[in-house]
Amino acid sequence: MQPTLLILAAGMASRYGSMKQTEGFGPSGETIMDYSIYDAIRAGFGKVVFIIRKDFAENFKANFDKRFKGQVAVDYVYQEMTSFVDPAEMPAERTKPWGTGHAILCAKDVIKEPFAVINADDFYGQDAFKKAADFLNNGCNEHTYSIIGYQLDKTLSDNGTVSRGVCSVDNSNNLVAINERTKIYNKDGKVIYEDNEGVKEVDGKSNVSMNFWCFDPSVFDFAGELFSVFPKEHMGNIKAEFFIPIIGDQFIKKEGNIIKVIPTTAQWFGVTYKEDAPGVKASLDALISAGEYPTSLWGE
Q: What is the pTM of this model?
């Protein structure tokens, strides 16, 4: 059974200011998602599932339905605030769904095979998808999940600070913890982060999670149990989110469960800020010039 790729495309990032998931960066108008899907197909993924919101479904489908016809099986899942939550208990002030872990849960009815999860607006690279497919086909089970780990200093922006989940691992490269570091940036050849205790240096060679996870479908039941109590405990906080790392943290706390951190040599890039867009386009042009991608991915 071929693995599935689940793409988180339900949000619109406030720092970027537009629907970057459908913005064209490639020479033929390809989005960053196009390159991820192209790499996934080459790595052996058999289906793509998009997590989107109903309020921009029409625009989203208009961009992608025709593009992937005959290329790969496609499905859509909607993430809404009331998914798996009693609408009567929802605060009137809440305006968005419950985060990336909640998004995964929304796909439980359409995914029955091992699957990978990625962000719509991140470029992950060929090597990452090959390693993910190999793990999903040969190493993934109900007690073993994985994260594709990126080298921290390859994931920074020249246009502002970023937040990264720095992975702590044991001697077998199994995840011990993900430490969320906000306000990370380069300064004088060093990688710096700021927190409540001040300014600190972090090893630029550290593996970080860029939200590229590999799961067995058993994760749906596990996440469902966790989320069944999450809204009740956080209903008073309209900004509370049920993130994927919450699932991962609770998973490895159970005896016998592990999450492998699988390093990739790929260069990550993305569009956290509007100012990142020219760099993304230049990076894609360089990869195309090197022969890693065709000028037009889908022959349009």
A: 0.91
